[in-house]
Amino acid sequence: MSAYKIFIVDDDPWYSQILEYHLSLNPDFEVHCFASGKECLKNLHLNPQLITIDYSMDDMTGDELLTKIKHWNSKVPVIVISGQEEISVALELLKKGAYDYLIKDDNTKDLLWNSVLRAMETQSLRDEVNQLHEQLEHKFSFEKTIIGQSPAITKTFKMMEKACKSNINVSITGETGTGKEVVAKAIHYNSDRSKKPFVAVNMAAIPKELVESELFGHEKGAFTGALARKKGKFEEAQGGTLFLDEIAELDLNLQSKLLRVLQEREVTRVGGNELVKLDVRIIVATHRDLQKEVQEGHFREDLFYRVMGLPIELPPLRERGNDVLILANHFIAQYAKENKQPKPKLDESAKEKMLRYNFPGNVRELKAMIDLAAVLCEENIITANDINYASVKGDQAFLAEEKSLRAYTCDIVKYFLTKYNNDVVGVAKRLNVGKSTIYKMISEKEIELN
Ligand SMILES: Nc1ncnc2c1ncn2[C@@H]1O[C@H](COP(=O)(O)OP(=O)(O)OP(=O)(O)O)[C@@H](O)[C@H]1O
């Protein structure tokens, strides 16, 4: 532990010495004496943790010095020592933030000793509370992993906080690439289960005939190819969280097996009889509307109620407004770090183009778009030309930007002008518009000729 730094400010050197001697008996205290208010203020850069001041000094009243010290750092305890007992003065000083008010008499040094110890204790408690607050904030701060500040995503944070504090099952819905797995992980790592495994299984990615043994495990010889006993994902996630992604892709037969496991909270490996007790929290995700799947008979209603738990809906990126740019900058920084390159900048044209786009592939698509733009850009500036819409084809690509009708008209005219060597008259005829319309577009710089 480093020494606890105390300033004693008193213009009576004899009295200072007594206090210094007394306080220095504690080897943890480092005491500095100053003979005037000015000298004390000059030395605040030494960062005292406690200051005692004499109430009546020649250069500055205790009142004035207290105000200046509090202005420098309102948290440092200041103990005022006065030659006379004046209740009104004492009250006034305490109101202004003095930690204690002591009278100079035979008991002062002992009272001071106790007061300093109390101040230290209060400070250490306050530090501890601050630290706990910080830890708590860090624990529940999803902002570091889930980037975005839009009202839509902030609403999600609130639900996630509730999910972290309880053990209830969670169902996450949202279009592909909206961050369902990121949310599931964030919930797990901010919950009481964080020290136990987070196991993710994508139902759509496992061949149908293997799903059962993947989830529940199998005994040696349970089927051809089962050469050894294997734990299933449920067992792997013991004590932790099992994330069942694309739950709607599970066929009806397996749905009833899953329901049984969730109800009984125990699993039997394929080809075995041993019951394994489970303590697993389930988080499911789907890009489908599960309720609709139930209505259409593709998803068991009883399983739906089992897994629904706390529903969290992730908004598509196109409904998150400016988050597009916040995420873009985040991915740019990530790219630059991973590739040990300076961070490219987005120019206005690139920003505008991204904000107009509807991102059918959501955050995943935005990340791919930024990675490519960072590679393509010149002189470290990403322009609209470096922004490519990879996920959409044909008509969809044409409409994905959601431009105004005027802007689409200009795009069409520009396309034909390029195709026919900027022959304005010929293009006007083909499109059945007046050539002056095209000339106007050119003169007003709505269209730039190649
Ligand atoms: N808000 C976010 N902040 C930072 N990164 C994000 C955010 N949302 C998604 N990502 C990133 O986008 C990518 C896709 O996210 P994720 O895999 O969680 O989406 P998903 O909804 O589970 O997709 P799918 O439905 O296709 O499984 C990942 O690389 C993830 O890290």
What do you see in this structure?
This protein is an alpha/beta fold. The protein has four domains: 4-135, Response regulator (Rossmann fold); 144-313, Rossmann fold (3-Layer(aba) Sandwich), CATH 3.40.50.300; 318-399, Helicase, Ruva Protein, domain 3 (Orthogonal Bundle), CATH 1.10.8.60; 403-450. Helix content is 47%, strand content 14%. The termini are far apart. It binds adenosine-5'-triphosphate (ATP).
Q: How much of the polypeptide forms β-strand, as a percent range?
A: 5-15%
Biggest beta sheet summary: 5 strands, parallel
- How many distinct folded domains? 4
Largest sheet strand order = 2-1-3-4-5
Low-confidence stretches: none
Present as ligands are: adenosine-5'-triphosphate
SSE map:
Elements lengths: L3 E6 L3 H11 L5 E6 L2 H6 L7 E5 L7 H11 L5 E5 L4 H9 L4 E4 L4 H32 L11 H15 L4 E4 L6 H10 L8 E5 L5 H9 E2 L11 E2 L1 H4 L4 E5 L6 H13 L1 E3 L6 E3 L3 E6 L3 H6 L5 H8 L1 E4 L9 H16 L6 E2 L1 H9 L5 H15 L4 E2 L11 H7 L4 H15 L4 H8 L3 H9 L7
Parallel strand pairs: 1-2, 1-3, 3-4, 4-5, 6-13, 6-14, 7-10, 10-13, 15-16
Antiparallel strand pairs: 8-9, 11-12
The chain binds adenosine-5'-triphosphate (ATP).
Adenosine-5'-triphosphate binds next to α7 and α15.
What keyword list fits this structure?
nucleotide-binding; DNA-binding; 450 residues; binds adenosine-5'-triphosphate; alpha/beta; transcription; Rossmann fold; 19 helices; 5-stranded parallel β-sheet; 16 strands; DNA binding; single chain; 47% helix; Helicase, Ruva Protein, domain 3
